[in-house]
Amino acid sequence: MTKLTGRTRLLGVVGDPVAQVRAPELWSEKFGTLGIDAVCVPFHVRPDDLAAFLDGASRWRNLDGLLITVPHKGAAMRFATQLSERARRVGAVNCLKPGPGGWVADMLDGVGFVTAFENGIGPVEGRRALVIGCGGAGSAIALALADGGAAAVDVSDVDDGRASALAERTAAAGVASRPVAPLGRGYDLIVNASPAGMRGTDPVPVDLGGVGADAAVADVITDPAVTPLIEEATRRGCRVQVGAQMTDAQAGHMASFFGYREVAAVPVSSRPNGAP
């Protein structure tokens, strides 16, 4: 752990809630290991307070940037003066850094997911994918799968309108995409990008009936480390990817964005599939 000094740099994580996020532990450990005088801290910010928080944070001279998590990924985009093409396509951001004219933003959930999947399981090219949850993370993942050469990327959400809108954007990226019910049969990649599974009483967000061992199942949730969906997929013999693996893979991309060259140079940690 970094010893705090008057020169310590700050990296923040902004969400509501933030108790479930792994980023403060992950980043602070990396900083300490590499001898970087920086620390990652969580900020619990309610939606109504986001504008005031970002206005104040833009004046902190020792802030390197902010990681944005639920439910702020869409709202935070409005405060950025510079957006990556990824963020524009997705309509959401998950990292902000101070720039000369205001906040600079990017959306790295999708590239982080694909990096983790291809390092741990295999190529996304040619796969028939189902993405559950069409918010910021789900949108980023669906578009990244399309960019990665998936054969089809169908989407499902409790909000039918949101699912239809994402299906249209994904189809515009050149891949077959439809809004569908959360039924896993017929897909060889199933991704939960919804909050379902964060509470122990949550039902499994997709029906895995008919899903065989040739399928891969992934969850973006990091707490619990192994969700009910991952437990059921494991029982069925599927290859699985847990939220921690996506978080770890995304860290390298974020390090480059924030300018932490030493962190970006460290290879993504090799975790066995399903390890928290």
UniProtKB/TrEMBL annotation:
SUPFAM superfamilies: Aminoacid dehydrogenase-like, N-terminal domain, NAD(P)-binding Rossmann-fold domains. The keyword Amino-acid biosynthesis applies. It comes from the Bacteria. InterPro entries: Aminoacid_DH-like_N_sf, NAD(P)-bd_dom_sf, Shikimate_DH-bd_N, Shikimate_DH_fam. Residues 13-96 form the Shikimate dehydrogenase substrate binding N-terminal domain. One of its GO terms (molecular function) is shikimate 3-dehydrogenase (NADP+) activity. Keywords: Amino-acid biosynthesis, Aromatic amino acid biosynthesis. The keyword Amino-acid biosynthesis applies. Pathway: Metabolic intermediate biosynthesis; chorismate biosynthesis; chorismate from D-erythrose 4-phosphate and phosphoenolpyruvate: step 4/7. One of its GO terms (cellular component) is cytosol. One of its GO terms (biological process) is aromatic amino acid family biosynthetic process. This is Shikimate dehydrogenase.
